[in-house]
Amino acid sequence: MASARLHFLFQLLLLFILLINHSVKCDDEEENLFQGINSYRTSLNLSSLTKNDNAACLAEEVADQFKKQPCTNTTGSNTVPGTEPQFSNYPDLLDKCHLNITNTRDGVILPACVPNLDPSLVLSNFTESLYSGYLNDSTYTGAGIGSEDNWIVVILSTNTSGGSFVTAESDAATLILKIELVYLLLILVFFL
Ligand SMILES: *[C@@H]1O[C@H](CO)[C@@H](O)[C@H](O)[C@H]1NC(C)=O
Ligand SMILES: *[C@@H]1O[C@H](CO)[C@@H](O)[C@H](O)[C@H]1NC(C)=O
Ligand SMILES: *[C@@H]1O[C@H](CO)[C@@H](O)[C@H](O)[C@H]1NC(C)=O
Ligand SMILES: *[C@@H]1O[C@H](CO)[C@@H](O)[C@H](O)[C@H]1NC(C)=O
Ligand SMILES: *[C@@H]1O[C@H](CO)[C@@H](O)[C@H](O)[C@H]1NC(C)=O
Ligand SMILES: *[C@@H]1O[C@H](CO)[C@@H](O)[C@H](O)[C@H]1NC(C)=O
């Protein structure tokens, strides 16, 4: 019994470490790109983009779909941007992030494949490509970034209802996440 508990605790800790490692690693590259895009916006006298967590959720899902594809001539910022990538399961991706197409269709999804997500190449793939035409557009007021392997995806949102990426569930979801974290902490305290 005791060893089963210990085993469970060990797995839980491992999971935490994995999760923390994963998010820190990705956050670095994503944060870099976010800052870089805002510097670019500032240099054009445009307002900075604010972080849009729901767009970031979708960006993460889209990056996850791309991740098995290697970088080629037709990937990277040569990928034709669109409001809906050609995934047959796109509705499922929206669903996972509790999003409805009615308030995501004015946003734009910009994927890029860059080996090892080299920071300067990542930034130039957005600011020195066709994508710059979206980044320099004052229509867009927010951004969410997600990455997986060599893929990094920026999703731009607007402050209008068609591109807000607002979810009815987002508040409820954060609440559930908070409750789950407290629950996990209680389990940890109990076992330690
Ligand atoms: C930005 O604004 C400043 C001051 O208003 C102006 O001098 C500069 O030319 C503008 N730059 C661009 C790229 O519009
Ligand atoms: C990549 O692009 C180069 C030059 O544009 C071309 O010569 C080459 O055939 C392309 N490779 C593929 C796999 O499309
Ligand atoms: C999205 O929202 C519209 C309008 O609020 C609603 O009619 C539609 O059923 C929703 N779609 C999904 C998949 O939830
Ligand atoms: C984009 O990244 C690719 C690597 O995937 C690199 O070869 C290319 O030069 C970059 N393009 C720009 C405009 O920075
Ligand atoms: C925005 O970028 C596009 C494409 O690079 C360019 O044609 C356009 O002149 C730029 N507009 C501004 C305001 O910088
Ligand atoms: C939306 O963003 C634009 C451009 O930044 C700004 O001019 C406008 O006031 C904003 N509207 C709302 C409702 O926040």
From TrEMBL:
Annotated organism of origin: Dillenia turbinata
Protein name (Swiss-Prot/TrEMBL): Uncharacterized GPI-anchored protein At5g19230-like domain-containing protein
Show which residues constitute the signal peptide: 1-26
Pinpoint the Uncharacterized GPI-anchored protein At5g19230-like domain residues. Answer: 30-156
Residues annotated as coiled-coil are none
Q: Which UniProt keywords apply?
A: Signal
